[in-house]
Amino acid sequence: MGESPSSPTSCSSSRSAPFPQSNFASLPVMALKDKIVEKILENRVTLIVGETGCGKSSQVPQFLLEENIKPILCTQPRRFAVVAVAKMVAKARNCELGAQVGYHIGHSKLISASSEIVFKTAGVLLDEMRDKGLNALNYKAIILDEVHERSVESDLVLVCVKQFLLKNNDLRLVLMSATADIARYRDYFKDLGRGERVEVLAIANTNQQALFQRRVSYLEQVTELLGTSSDLLAQTYCSGPNPSMAAADIKPEVHRLIFDLILHIHENEPDIEKGILVFLPTYHDLEQQWHRLNPLSSSFKVHILHGSIDTQQALLAMKILKSHRKVILATNIAESSVTIPKVAYVIDSCRSLQVFWDATRKKDSTELVWVSKSQANQRKGRTGRTCDGQIYRLVTKSFFNKLEDHERPAILRLSLRQQVLLMCCAESRAINDPKVLLQKALDPPDPEFIEDALNLLVCMKALDRPSPRGRYEPTFYGRLLASFPLSFDASVLVLKFADFGLLQQGILLGILMDAQPQPILRPFGEEHLVLSYKLHVLACGNNSPSDNFFYQSSVYRVRLPILWWRLRLYCPNWSKGDDTNWKLGCISVLATYF
């Protein structure tokens, strides 16, 4: 394991000391500890299926460590989940985060030479496999959690790990999910070796069900509860009778319904510590609901969970409050893996934001879609963990029954330009032929999509076209493009700026355009600051070429109502005369217009 800049202290007990069993004795997974370890040792691939909240994410890595199966790598689909689960496991093992238990998300890495359980996002692991090949998998066991979440990175990690499993008989792979299609994963790994198979372990939830109950209500019960009209429910709140005929946009009536439901819960739930988690599809929808709740700040403490929010700020939602009712407004970032203490109510809009490749316009686009039943069940699992739970689904029961069972894999709907380029730049020949590798995916993309990506990269001079039977080779430009820890479009933008002698500005713009979590965060409210920022920007320019670039870009090419929130958190000290950060804030606004 690589050393972090400052190595934390090790565990207070010996490194293989048992974790405190009393805290987790009621978790359903605990009853299967010995069997789980036994099956993982006997089989190269094990699939663990257990209901949300059964304890598999936090406990299975510790089971393996107790049996001296280490080091252990665990992947989670999202940064927030990586940090939250790593903190939970470190606390359970009574050690400082970064010692025996570490994590790596994006540019944030808290790992030491003594780290024996490491949590990473699928994207981080994918980058490491590209750069180091089989050496990136220098672990005894790899746990891929939430395998039902079919991001491009998750699918590529799965196919790459499978290729390396063929070369390393000692590696153990553990797949975990609450809603995975068992038959598909069994079939996917059937060619590993003669006589080998995927061992499946199902975790019963009987113990936990006796402790905490979950109740699910649909739109019919919600409107009855609130005493609102029940006429034409699907048309009023769902835009149609079934998912195939209904747009997934959120009407003002839906926002009003959510607000009224929050108030009803608050007025009728005497325990102030019991929080409310609301799933909404977009940042704009989070804003809309926040504006409704903000005047009631004496009653509610509102937290936001979104990809643009700093992870440490997002983790504040994990705290239990005794003075205010906690309301968490979240996108699908809170959908899996994470236990948020004392969430007793989940309000599910049953909508999400999906990115897809528009082949006609040759660009990524977004659309609001209805969630799958699998996603809805993951959202349901956010409650009933530390207390009884009530789930409100804002669709009718008949509407819900017509939802798709699983979401469509991202690898089938996104452009694969960046992934194809990164594969071509991979050091290991086992994964550096995108045409071959992608056809080995769990859901292989259309070969035409791969060919389109290759042709585009050749036209951009990022790849050299091979002989009829040869492999595509990355050019210097292609390797440079692939080396940036940015999206494909942001990386191209940086190099385009460099062509015009504006490399520094291009790098800043690329980072601010693409970095997640965003270095400039949109605050909720405080519109009165618009004029202050406008006056500050107008007062800060001087005659240097660099200042003219920032000044003209921010003032004359951008609408000022957008500028204010871009500057808000990036420039906390602008009134003290610090004119460096405001320039960074100004240039970030260009990201919206390129």
Q: Which key terms come to mind for this protein?
A:
disordered C terminus, eight-stranded mixed beta sheet, six-stranded parallel beta sheet, Rossmann fold, alpha/beta, disordered N terminus, 594 residues
What can you tell me about this protein's structure?
The protein is of the alpha/beta class and 594 residues long. The chain folds into 4 domains: 21-208, Rossmann fold, CATH 3.40.50.300; 212-408, P-loop containing nucleotide triphosphate hydrolases (Rossmann fold), CATH 3.40.50; 415-475; 514-592, no CATH class. It is built from 24 helices and 18 strands. Helix 4 (122-132) packs across helix 5, helix 15 (417-424) crosses helix 17 (447-459) and helix 20 packs across helix 24.
Question: Average pLDDT across residues?
Answer: 80
Into which percent range does the helicity of residues fall? 25-40%
Number of domains: 4
CATH class category name of the largest domain: Alpha Beta
Question: Termini, distance in Å?
Answer: 40 Å
Output the CATH homologous superfamily of the largest domain. P-loop containing nucleotide triphosphate hydrolases
What is the CATH third-level topology name of the largest domain? Rossmann fold
How large is the radius of gyration?
25 Å
Biggest β-sheet description? 8 strands, mixed
Task: Classify the secondary structure makeup into a structural class.
Answer: alpha/beta
Oligomeric nature of the chains:
single chain
Instruction: Give the helix tally.
Output: 24
EC number: 3.6.4.13
Catalytic activity: ATP + H2O = ADP + phosphate + H(+)
Domain Helicase ATP-binding: 37-198
GO molecular function: ATP binding; hydrolase activity; RNA binding; RNA helicase activity
